[in-house]
Every structure is written in C-alpha cells, then in structure tokens.
Amino acid sequence: MAFLSVLTPVLVAVLCGLVALLFIYPRKTVTASREQTEGGSKAESKRASNGRPWVDQDLEDDTEVTAKDEEEDDWVDSNEENIPHVPYSPLRYPVEKMLERSQEFYALMNQRRTVRFISPEPVPRDVIDNVIRTAGTAPSGAHTEPWTFVVISDPETKHQIRLIVEEEEEVNYRQRMGDKWVRDLAKIRTNWIKEYLDVAPYLILIFKQTYGILPNGKKKTHYYNEISVSISCGILLAALQNVGLVTVTSTPLNCGPQLRLLLKRPANEKLLMLLPVGYPSSDAMVPDFRRKPLEDIVLHI
Ligand SMILES: Cc1cc2nc3c(=O)[nH]c(=O)nc-3n(C[C@H](O)[C@H](O)[C@H](O)COP(=O)(O)O)c2cc1C
C-alpha cells in the first residue's frame, strides 16, 4: 500500500500529461494545416494582386521531366533517319503579285475578330475538316506533329463542356485571377457565362501531346510541343477567317483535367485551347479595338 501511495502522484502526473498531449496535439495539427492553407491562398492572392496570372498547372510542359524521370527503356529515339529527301520548288510570284497578295492577305486577317456571339446556324462538316487539315500543316519540333483536334457537335457533350467551363471560370473570376486581371478584362465585357459553348455548331478542343505514344507502347519525345501546337492554332484561326467563320480564342484556366476526362483523352494530352466555331450571329458586337501600327511592332536592323 505504501508503495502504491508513493506511485499515485506519479501516475496522476503521467495521466495528466497524456490528457494534455491529447488536447494540444490535434490543436497544433489544425493550426498547422490552417496556416498551410491560409499561406497557400495568401500566396495565390498575392500572386494575383501582383498582376501575375495564376498559372494553369495542367499546362506545365513535362517533356523534359518525364524524359528524365522515366526508365530509359520506355523511350525510343527517332526511327526515321533514312527518310528520303525530295526536290521542292513552290510557286514563285513576280514582285507586284507578291505585293498584291501580301496586301490582300493582310486585309483578310485584319478583319479577324474574336466574336463571342455565335449563330447556331449549321456549318458544313467538310469545311471544318479542311480547316483542321490546314492547321495540321504547321511546322513542329522534329516533325512530331504533337496535336489532337477534338471536334464536338453533339449537343449533350457541348453542354457538359459548358458546365465544366462555367464552374471553373466562376472561381477564376472570383478568386484565381485577382482584381487587376478582372479589371483588365472589363473592357471586353466577358464573365464566366459562356452561352456560345451550347450555341456554336462546333467546339474544337486542341490538345498538345506532351510526348508521343507509339503503337508498341514506347514513348517519343515531342520537342517544343507547346510552341508547335500554338503555331498550329494560329494557322487554324487564319483558316477559319478565310472561310468567314468566327471563334473565341480561349484557354479555359484549370478546366484541362476535367475536359480531358470527359473526352477520354490520354494523360499525355493537355488542353491548350478551346475554340467555339460558327458564323457570327446577326447582332454580334465586338470591342472597337485599334491594332498597333507597323512602326510600333517592327524593328528593322
Ligand atoms: C491565349 C489567348 C487566350 C484568350 N482567352 C480568352 C478567353 O478565355 N475568353 C475570351 O473571351 N477571349 C479570350 N481571348 C481573346 C482575346 O480577348 C482577344 O484576342 C483580344 O481581346 C483581342 O481581340 P481580337 O481577337 O478581336 O483582335 C484570348 C486570346 C488569346 C490569344
């Protein structure tokens, strides 16, 4: 008994210590995780208030990373070393004709505007196919052609896309973009409501393939895939302009993973651009922008 009565204060002290630990530890964890979350969102809003755009992580080009991290055996080198070279002699125009053509093409492209009011009027499918064929003529790093164009005309799929984009865009406008970006957009009067995603006869989603997958499952490096696909998108915009169709060049922030899953695209494909395509609606309006004159954009040395 004497032994027990000596031990009792020690036991009580140990028990008190345990109870105190039980109370303190979870609180510390909560505080730490709250600090982490607050720190994260503070960093995000600081980035936004600095005027630096919130970066779409899904778009990170992981070509180099993946090439380094994965087993050497998963990757192949080019197997096209012996490709024949053939003569190339395209049309050559007299100088006056060149001038005339350059002016005409400039006049055509200078008419191009981003149009957010698109008519539901059907557009021939063959025209869209030719526009995409044209986009597929773009140059690409080591001729890897790292693009996939997903053309959607199915109304239900278009609507699913609208739901995804509008949900993310609302968060973009309210939280991710920050005051400066939202103010900069005020002049073009956009918000997260994207009616044209339901209305336009076609949505073209352009994916960049961060690496290629060969029929034998091996991976192939796609050099400069984002630059290559961006050039292809530029040619696509010119091809649309050439046939009198309009679009909205859009890069829906943070929608890539959901849209990729919806469209069942593989993980090596990242959404680069979403283009609703159609005729302009009869009451379409655009901001009255002026373009920089030549002397402000060119430097001859
Ligand atoms: C990379 C890129 C992303 C764009 N993203 C959007 C967008 O998400 N929503 C939108 O309405 N317009 C978007 N635009 C269109 C621009 O607002 C438009 O090009 C600009 O205001 C100039 O107008 P213009 O195309 O009529 O010359 C984007 C343009 C580019 C090049």
TrEMBL record:
Extent of Basic and acidic residues compositional bias: 35-47
E.C. no: 1.21.1.1
Cofactor(s) needed for function: FMN
Listed InterPro entries: Nitroreductase (IPR029479), Nitroreductase-like (IPR000415), Nitroreductase/BluB (IPR050627)
Keywords assigned by UniProt, alphabetized: Flavoprotein, FMN, Membrane, Oxidoreductase, Transmembrane, Transmembrane helix
Top-level EC class as recorded in UniProt: oxidoreductase
Recorded GO CC terms: plasma membrane
Gene Ontology MF terms: FMN binding; iodotyrosine deiodinase activity
Top-level taxon of the source organism: Eukaryota
The keyword Nuclease belongs to this UniProt entry's keyword annotation: no
Gene3D superfamilies: NADH Oxidase
Family: Belongs to the nitroreductase family.
Protein name: iodotyrosine deiodinase
Organism phylogeny: Eukaryota, Metazoa, Chordata, Craniata, Vertebrata
Encoding gene per record: IYD
